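Might I ask for a little of your time on a matter of protein folding? Here, with my thanks, is the record as I have it:
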Amino acid sequence: MAAALWYLVVSSFGPWALGAVMNVLGGESVWYRLAIYFYLHFLYNGWMIMALLGIFFFILESHQLGVSNESFKRFFWNINLGIILSFFLSTLFMNPPLLLNFLGGTGALLQLAAFSILLKAFTTDKEKSKAMFSPLQNVLLKTVAVLLGVKMLLQLITAFPSFANLATTHLDFTIGYLHWTFLGVVTLSLFLFLNYFGLLKLSKSTYYFYLIGFLITEALIFYKGIAAWKSVPLFDGYFQALAVGSIAIPIALFILLWNNLKPKAINF
């Protein structure tokens, strides 16, 4: 958790640098974009993901499922080196030397290695691991694990120049990736932990309503990127479909809020 707080501090250097960049180089400078990417990268890959992992380790230890010291050291160094090196993936829009592709790809691989260490530790005693959470919480945990694994794989493939060029040319892919991280990995992890600690009442139907809205919007965002890449028109009713998918998310959150503010309300 201490590492997560350090990343929060480090991420703030990006916004602080924006003033100097604007004054000296202007908003069209690549350094302006780099400052924003620096902030975003260390905010969600550093602060948010590491804070969520810290909470997860706390839960594991409270159930005597702590990772061995050796495994934890390997996890700690892999995840932190991975976060630092994978920042170079955010610089690929400048078409830098291939060395930065290599460093960014190494960072993505290190994060995948850390993820596999954590997954192995959690699944060592499957019965005990399953008993830690309620049935709904186990569904949430599996969903988050899949989303996190896909997020890390997406990071890895952008280390290849052709995919890096695709992501930087068609920003819908970048937007889809950020939505995947914030609305998927981070938000669903918060649902899981808040429900686990008794701070949030969450029904299965509300969760699936949110998940359906999330998946519809993700599919449509990535579809728009693919359509632009292949130079094909969007299907008729695309924006209406996007609106329907998007509105499902705030509706699910409204129901969630209603059920938590009204103790006697019937869960949707």
Observations:
- The CA atoms of residues 147 and 184 lie 7 Å apart.
- The radius of gyration is 20 Å.
